[in-house]
# Entry
Amino acid sequence: MSQEKIITRGPEFFPNIPRINYEGSDSKNPLSFKWYNPVQKVGGKTMKEHLRFAISYWHTMQGEGRDIFGNPTVVRPWNTASDAKQRAADTANAAFEFFTKIDAGYYCFHDADVIEEAGNLRESNERIDFIVGILEELQTETGIKLLWNTTNLFSNPRFMAGAATNPDASVVAYAAAKVKKMLEVGSKLGAENYVFWGGREGYETLMNTDMQRELDHMAKFLFGAVDYAKKIGFDAQFLIEPKAMEPSKHQYDHDAATCLNFLREYGLMDYFKLNIEANHATLAGHSFEHELTVASNAGMLGSVDSNRGDVLLGWDTDQFAIEFYDTARAMIVILNQGGLGSGGLNFDAKLRRGSTDLEDLFIAHIGSMDAFAVGLLVAEKYLARHKEILANRYNSFDSGIGEQFESDNIDFEAFENHALNNPEPVTISGKQELLENEFNGILNDVMKAA
Amino acid sequence: MSQEKIITRGPEFFPNIPRINYEGSDSKNPLSFKWYNPVQKVGGKTMKEHLRFAISYWHTMQGEGRDIFGNPTVVRPWNTASDAKQRAADTANAAFEFFTKIDAGYYCFHDADVIEEAGNLRESNERIDFIVGILEELQTETGIKLLWNTTNLFSNPRFMAGAATNPDASVVAYAAAKVKKMLEVGSKLGAENYVFWGGREGYETLMNTDMQRELDHMAKFLFGAVDYAKKIGFDAQFLIEPKAMEPSKHQYDHDAATCLNFLREYGLMDYFKLNIEANHATLAGHSFEHELTVASNAGMLGSVDSNRGDVLLGWDTDQFAIEFYDTARAMIVILNQGGLGSGGLNFDAKLRRGSTDLEDLFIAHIGSMDAFAVGLLVAEKYLARHKEILANRYNSFDSGIGEQFESDNIDFEAFENHALNNPEPVTISGKQELLENEFNGILNDVMKAA
Amino acid sequence: MSQEKIITRGPEFFPNIPRINYEGSDSKNPLSFKWYNPVQKVGGKTMKEHLRFAISYWHTMQGEGRDIFGNPTVVRPWNTASDAKQRAADTANAAFEFFTKIDAGYYCFHDADVIEEAGNLRESNERIDFIVGILEELQTETGIKLLWNTTNLFSNPRFMAGAATNPDASVVAYAAAKVKKMLEVGSKLGAENYVFWGGREGYETLMNTDMQRELDHMAKFLFGAVDYAKKIGFDAQFLIEPKAMEPSKHQYDHDAATCLNFLREYGLMDYFKLNIEANHATLAGHSFEHELTVASNAGMLGSVDSNRGDVLLGWDTDQFAIEFYDTARAMIVILNQGGLGSGGLNFDAKLRRGSTDLEDLFIAHIGSMDAFAVGLLVAEKYLARHKEILANRYNSFDSGIGEQFESDNIDFEAFENHALNNPEPVTISGKQELLENEFNGILNDVMKAA
Amino acid sequence: MSQEKIITRGPEFFPNIPRINYEGSDSKNPLSFKWYNPVQKVGGKTMKEHLRFAISYWHTMQGEGRDIFGNPTVVRPWNTASDAKQRAADTANAAFEFFTKIDAGYYCFHDADVIEEAGNLRESNERIDFIVGILEELQTETGIKLLWNTTNLFSNPRFMAGAATNPDASVVAYAAAKVKKMLEVGSKLGAENYVFWGGREGYETLMNTDMQRELDHMAKFLFGAVDYAKKIGFDAQFLIEPKAMEPSKHQYDHDAATCLNFLREYGLMDYFKLNIEANHATLAGHSFEHELTVASNAGMLGSVDSNRGDVLLGWDTDQFAIEFYDTARAMIVILNQGGLGSGGLNFDAKLRRGSTDLEDLFIAHIGSMDAFAVGLLVAEKYLARHKEILANRYNSFDSGIGEQFESDNIDFEAFENHALNNPEPVTISGKQELLENEFNGILNDVMKAA
# Structure
């Protein structure tokens, strides 16, 4: 049982939705958890401590079912006031009602999610101060924490050609001002991380783009953010979120390896980690676990945007992850590195445009929270076996020429000598199909035990 | 318990592999079925009757781990004799040993799989007669049946620019001769279906291709096959297998809808059904269940190549289907149309190139047969609920203007009248996330009951 | 020289842009045609008669630089009035100023482009009547014609689950009412074609979709449109526009072959042709010329949406076609079928979001009109050679067994006889690289002569 | 006129093909250059010096038209001897006859291309010594140079699970021995570069792969190669060739950025550059010029595999680059960095499988050499304009807050101050369509002048 209390200021926005409870895997109640039991211990930590779920303010509170060919399909009751501040306050109340009812410990937002931008920077900042006051109060009342905040540097037309990488210096300055404000907000609200997603840091055509100069600017901009955070004592983990394309034709933070290359080139490795999103992985042509592994191997897996994409479509569908194979593969990498530290699983996922009932918001989150709970349980059982498999497969490096290879410099002459004076190497089965079958066996064990 | 006997003529080729038995879902024996219980009844039929598994001669017996950048990784013991006929006989013996040990009821082959083509057509045909005699005997001894046979019209360079669609009439004649022979073989071996896969029926460039003339030729060729089969009393179901590309840049049988369009255009709908392959679906940008549904809706789903592709890769990976979501979605369509009739589930799947142990052949088939068994169990539970969902969602067509729409011709004036005199339609949630959660619930029920 | 007069009612909206004239290929004036010379004869017709360019009202007049992550980047001067009718009138004036200055003979629109939908159907229809009166007057004054109109059945949330294929009969009725109105509008404005693009006719998930029932509805709806058009004497060519996905996950009009299959199944072939779009072709995994060829071979290529997509991106980028190879390959198919009849080349293309100058609208159209002019010139030279190539390549069907194959039914026994008694067929080079080189040679000849 | 002499030892293999000469762009002789004039000066260097064409031994001499579904379509006359050494010698003679007749200055090979591997390493090495003696002689006689050599670490089954990254240490040793031999060969033949392409350095499934350990091994292996080359005084430029996938499901050298990240991580930046291939770029979801630019910006663009892929297909089609837009975009990046230094344009391109005439080898190379000649001419004209465009677009960084941004550390407070006290930035058109039109104008100028 968790101790946040339901927000009651103003009217309830989800009056027909009770707090969601764990009822076990055989429950047929759509408004209950089947596998996600916040207090259940898995390897020494509770599920809630492992999974650190965060709700995305933009999709869950501000998503309105718009797509590139269609107008909004839902008008949320918290989004109807004509006054921007009232709308923002109502939305915050609704948000914390949702957070507590779904029993998420964390949330995430862009500045533009929590209150509409005003006509000029000064007034926008004042609006932000207004809503941040309310959010702070709601956090205190409920115990819900801010996993991360970020700055929207992509919606406003001023950023159409980039923010930190804009060819116009005055836009770069504007972007810096907006990031500065959000660093202050993050600090005030105790954000555990701060995210940079560069949806407009990229290009439409190389014909009008000086890529090298833009990347130099991007690095400089990030150093500026690091410095300013230090100055104000904001010690959140900074995160970069890779995405290959969309909205830009090419985005500089293409995938995990590209981001790492950039961070290494400019000496930024100590100040950043990565926020890996499932759907962004597939847009880059990678599996989710590939991107998680690349980041994790470099010690740079900071947090996760836990959604899924439709691999047959070429845009970000931001669906809720629901298949046990997907969530298990992700949790294996996360568990293998001992968890996400200050990071968490942020649902960067939205309802399908046709899911227009208010309760669909709960149903979608429940399904994905359950799927990650199953994924966690599978991962926990799988990891020991996985380590054994790898230890066996690479054991030729534990002695002889293999050990020599790993410990010394490789000496091509000695290696040639070895090859000339030993029989042809024999092929050793990789046993992929066996491992796939074993995975199903572990899923069986988990499902039966749940 | 099934009654085929193990083939013992000549040496055993899998001496260390016992007949594979069902041991239940908690068995940890990799050489046992966990969910596939041939005699278990599901909705009035046994699992074996539902699933009608067939083994692909080309992958399972002739697959050698070649890829476009690599030489074979395995040399099978049945493939070592220097004489083509001896090699073919050994392979047939090994094949039937495999079929019976894995307890598949069916197998499938191309002419080129069962015996190597000779230097000329006459001699090739003699070779085929030789091996067909042996296959017939083995079928009789074991009770294993031929799900389908087909003609390889793509490997030999004579077919590089097509078989039925080759710009050289003498190649078309040659292709006809080869198909003629295989129709006779199918007839002799009691094949239940005969498959056309047109890997070279397509083009590399439109610059040198008269697409219309080639399609006219293809239709004429198929009519020829229909006529000849009738003449020799071979009454197998003819099947066309869609594939979008590979080896050709564009293949005429691109996907299910394209095949249907072709069959309709030329008046061939009565003589053919479709053989739908999972990996070919994804190469065409479709989900497997989409292609199955398109074929099934047209009454044209005849048989299935039950593999899976890697959706992040652009070629046919022909992996064994192993994930329960995939197999369940396929089985839903199949069960919904009352089964595959004379068709079956042919494993057009091959070991990963690095899976070089002989036992891997068994392990891979076991895993996929188990996955389809789970898929069948899920499908059976899911279908009743599915029909209820659809009945509810479309119930506005059961009365009023909807019923009128379905029963009469649509009258735009009456409909405008209705629209002008009724309130704006309200949006109705499609409940996609709820349905996805329910699917996991059904998987839970199936896993627990198994 | 063409005789339409510049519209001067109200203020000019492009006061700094003169009428665009042909200045020849060496002109460096960005506001001139380099290759498109409306009056130049190519094979008996003028370029203007061949190309029948049409301007897309939605992109050119209503495009505001919105994308899925970004707000509008431009506010057009004709789009600022607060009153919907005034805004529509201003836009119409600006549109015809643009059409005449760019010297396009045609335009195209959806109902929602020419005037904003009102709160209910009756009022929306009244608004349409208002703007159609103005459009009619402008057409008369300028001689600009309506290539096609269409109904927007995808933006309004009422259509989120389809229009003709909506599970709610009242939405189907609403869609019928809207199409009815636009058929009347097409009739009044003398539209030469009427287009159906079913962006919402498809599905998000098969879990809640009865595909067969929806397709039955779609067919019935189209018959309704055919009947009503006949009733009011509107004899425009009806067109279906294939698109694979976006906005829907799967769209029923996936590609040309899928549309043809649908039209054949329901007996609609006599009433419809296809409107093929370049970008939709690549989204379906096809080349533009492939889709054009499929439609043309079936006698069903009615009109063309002449844009281009970024083949490395998975969404509709709707870029202006600018590369000579692309435009030439399209014009080859069009010229080969003797032109588009009542169809034309509609620029379903939009400015890049960052191209915010008013003059960019002209520059983009000029570039693409020039590119199609070059394409036309190349196509004209290429076709004779192309026919010769094909005649040679397939000449084995002009005598002997080939001729027999084309004229009679194919007799597999006779063909086997031929194959047994003739030498192995020899491979004949397809000469693809030679043909590609020749294409560059033709481009050279055209560029030099221009 | 170039001074290499035609090889006449043994029979001519291309007796009907003369030396290919430049005849000007209006020539209709398919066996002549239309634009590639080796001695023509472009900006101070001859075309031959700029383009440094190299012929790929594997495709041009050893390509036999095999694909994954088909057997060879050609048997080359130099490949018929039963003795491996005789076959190798004949092939070398044919190769140098081809190189001199096509007037390429360079060639490239893998060990396995120049002579078939023997049954054991010692004998394989002896074979290599034999053929290298002949190649050395042929180089001396003709003046043709070795652009680069490399080691085939992917075809033999021993490498099925990797070479440097194989889980079996004895395979790593074997790979080292093979690379050692080829470094010696490179040294002996004066290779100007040495290439590493890691087709098997990657994984099929993460289930059996320790990615981090494998990458550590890869780095160590490369250091070994660097050390050994130094030891034997082989000072060629080392190159890594990115490829995303195929044959492996995932390859560690995914794209340029991934390779750079790897080289930076392990401290290998000083010893390697990149060999960028067009088709590998598109397989990774990038444009060719993107990958060239990423490499070039890092000072790491060493050489180029100048082919093209079919962007609608998901495998390496290795087609000859023929379209002027593609070759121009590549040459712009190359010219912008002042050429490729010791690198060159290697035709990693093969005939279409159906192009079976011997002359097709010449025709394909001629077409692509011509296309690169046009590309060079366009690039030369384009670059000055391009620099002007970029200088203008970014000129806000040449003074004021922009200059401060580039010269100092960014101070977020100062930047906020600037943003607060200046008007909202205005959007500035990126003029993409204008630049695209200008590109066509430059192509016009080049075509007319040629």
Observations:
- The first strand of chain B starts at residue 21 and ends at 22.
